[in-house]
Amino acid sequence: MSQHRLPDLPYAEDALAPHISAETLGLHHGKHHATYVDKLNNLIEGTDFADKPLTNIIVEADGGIFNNGAQAWNHAFYWHCLSPDGGGNPEGELATRIGRDFGTTDALREQFSKALTTLFGSGWVWLALDPSGKLVIESRSNAGNPLRDGLLPILTCDMWEHAYYVDYRNRKQAYVDAFWKLVNWRFAAENVARGKPFQVQ
Ligand code: MN
Fold first, then answer.
1. What is the Å distance from ligand 1's center to 32 Cα?
2. How far apart are CA 189 and CA 186, in angstroms?
3. What residues are neighbours of ligand 1 (ion), with CB under 5 Å?
4. Which of 52, 85, 163, 184 measures 20 to 30 Å from 11, CA to CA?
5. How far is the CA of 103 from the centre of ligand 1 (A)?
6. Gap from CA of 33 to ligand 1 centroid (Å)
7. Which CATH number does the domain 22-80 belong to among 1.10.3720.10, 3.40.720.10, 1.10.287.990, 1.10.1740.10?
8. Alpha carbon 17 to chain centroid distance?
9. How many other CB atoms are found less than 10 A from the CB of residue 6?
């Protein structure tokens, strides 16, 4: 690939309202995500990373190339973790795995929510598969991504202030509640079934 491009949102900008507003999505996707992609394209020009997919950049790069490359992938992944038809509870194989590793989906929601509301500063909370196949909750600061540590991302929530400040100001718990109303368990199940990292097209 010569240039990374900003992927389209998988739904309309107003599709997640009232939980996440069109104003937030317009800024978050059209400005924040777009800027990470633009900066990445400028930084990788003429380097060994120029022709590598984002998943390689996340594992191999450092500094600005890592930060912008990981943020480009993290946001593409995050959009799919939300859905106008989301919420509720997982089904099938994913539900079985959550039951095995957390006891209940409510227990997973409680632990994931606590990780989100207690994350210090900007970052992401991830549901990921560890190398033994166990589902784990992983907090990462800034652009952090568990792929870098050999874990497979299954689901994420963006806990940078730009993800919620327009809609919820400093009320992190209200944003977390909105996340659970939109959560796309089907996408999480696809990531488990694929067994390989999501690729940004
Ligand atoms: Mn963000």
1. 7
2. 5
3. 158, 160, 163
4. 52
5. 30
6. 7
7. 1.10.287.990
8. 19
9. 17
Note down pLDDT in tens along the chain; length 201 residues: 469 999 999 999 999 999 999 999 999 999 999 999 999 999 999 999 999 999 999 999 999 999 999 999 999 999 999 999 999 999 999 999 999 999 999 999 999 999 999 999 999 999 999 999 999 999 999 999 999 999 999 999 999 999 999 999 999 999 999 999 999 999 999 999 999 999 997
The amino acid at 50: A
- DSSP labels, 66-110: HHHHHHHHHHHHHHHHB-TT--S---HHHHHHHHHHHSSHHHHHH
CATH code matching the domain that covers 92-194, chosen among 3.40.50.920, 3.30.70.380, 1.20.1250.20, 3.55.40.20 = 3.55.40.20
36: CA distance to ligand 1 center in Å? Answer: 10
